């Protein structure tokens, strides 16, 4: 197991994590629409027919042929097959969404029509047609959405509109969490030299927001601070997860057993350290898995904010790759206050966005062991190595993971 001794540039680390996940993405599978939410299209979504598939009324009213007045000859409702209008001066009552009969020359809105004493219909059609023609939305065989598109309710509705009962998607990555540290409490307030474990509730929730499945049984800890316990816990987690996150033990202290455990498991580093503050040190390792597909271990630091930075810097891109999605491009925001640099390291500074999501204000209480600032933030502004950021400057912004549809 070869280690990289120099920290990897933060931008490069995101790319390496993404590429590692993309190369290990699982095979496509076909699932019913009802089970596809949160998945990723493994194939383009292509129309099976023209959309709409037949001329469709946009109004409730009358389908007419020839000059007024028109003699009603029937009715066509949504879901029915319309008989052709064959004679001038005839019409049929038509409902919104119904098939427009062949031979129709215009549609008259019911509220803009009248009936004479003989029951014949009068009215003036509007200048623009009141029905949709086949192919107005899409033509048969047209690609609507590319492979790699996240499946959300709108995508499901589009697939159903096209006539799909199943779609081809990527599998959901499975994740697990192992918390290291004998000093951690799993309940109650901290004290007497022990601190409360805050990462067991935090990390799985954000893993799910990144689209991973996390079974409650796959969250374990604190794991005993011995090499044997670490190896056994990691091996067990790798049996049920594609990505195992660990917290703590990323240094080389007297009770830091992560590196020796990875060596014993035959892992190789994707990266061993990343040049970012806070968050140093973090790591990502590739572990041999079944059927030639590797599994991954992401070593997050034990300090809570540093662990979050490692999670969104490495695990977020890794999961995007495993999903078969694109690596998200970081938006740019305007700073409302200056942010210092951190020498040769990328500085990720917690910030809150304004209501429009365009301006970012740095927050307080941002020590690597603190979560108070994190709880009031939307993400991190990115200050590149050997630079500093001034108020009014546009800088990249690394958002915290949100559920689909949520806004800052």
Automatic annotation (TrEMBL):
It catalyses: adenylyl-molybdopterin + molybdate = Mo-molybdopterin + AMP + H(+). Residues 176-321 form the MoaB/Mog domain. One of its GO terms (cellular component) is cytosol. GO terms for biological process: Mo-molybdopterin cofactor biosynthetic process. The keyword Ubl conjugation does not apply. One of its GO terms (molecular function) is molybdopterin molybdotransferase activity. Its EC number is 2.10.1.1. Pfam families: MoCF_biosynth, MoeA_C, MoeA_N. Pathway: Cofactor biosynthesis; molybdopterin biosynthesis. InterPro entries: MoaB/Mog-like_dom_sf, MoaB/Mog_dom, MoeA-like, MoeA_C_domain_IV, MoeA_C_domain_IV_sf, MoeA_linker/N, MoeA_linker/N_sf. The keyword Metal-binding applies. Its cofactor is Mg(2+). Belongs to the MoeA family. Catalyzes the insertion of molybdate into adenylated molybdopterin with the concomitant release of AMP. This is Molybdopterin molybdenumtransferase.
